[in-house]
Amino acid sequence: MNLPNLITFGRLLAVPATVWLILADDWQPAFWVFVAAGVSDAVDGALARLTRSQSDLGRALDPAADKALLVSIYIALGVKGMLPAWLVILVVFRDAMLVGAMVLMAMMERRLNIDPSLLSKINTGLQIALAALVLSESAFDFGLDAWIGPGVWLVAASTLASGLGYLFTRRGEFSVKKVGA
Known about the structure:
Layout: H1 3-23, H2 27-50, H3 56-79, H4 85-107, E1 110-113, H5 118-140, H6 148-169, E2 175-178
Helix pairs in contact: 1-2, 1-3, 2-5, 3-4, 3-5, 4-6, 5-6
């Protein structure tokens, strides 16, 4: 296992720690662990490219760590009443739909390569920004509460658009290959 993959694995370990801290109302450490996990996402990818140590494990582990982190944080913030339940359901459903498509293809002995669209990358950035905003307001009370409501609607719109984009407009762009072919 190379260094970028170890960093990604560390991000996976940050998921239960962050959720536990949120559920325990320990907001400042939750914020900092979440920020560290977010920074690690940029660092592992850049390091893998710079050292030419990209791997199949990293290509699978990185998006799994990202999805685990975001979905878990959204669920925890929803449980704490910091995000509306309907938004949490929308975010979780979109990611479950994508993971379900990959699992279905694997069961059919096919590999489904889904390259994230620009809209999907924007959506992920907005989801991270909203989670960071909610965590920072809970941890430090910067007085940015007024941004949370518009952030919720922006994340909802981008999540819906991204999910529909994968479902409809990108369907023909998926690369499907028979495993072993």
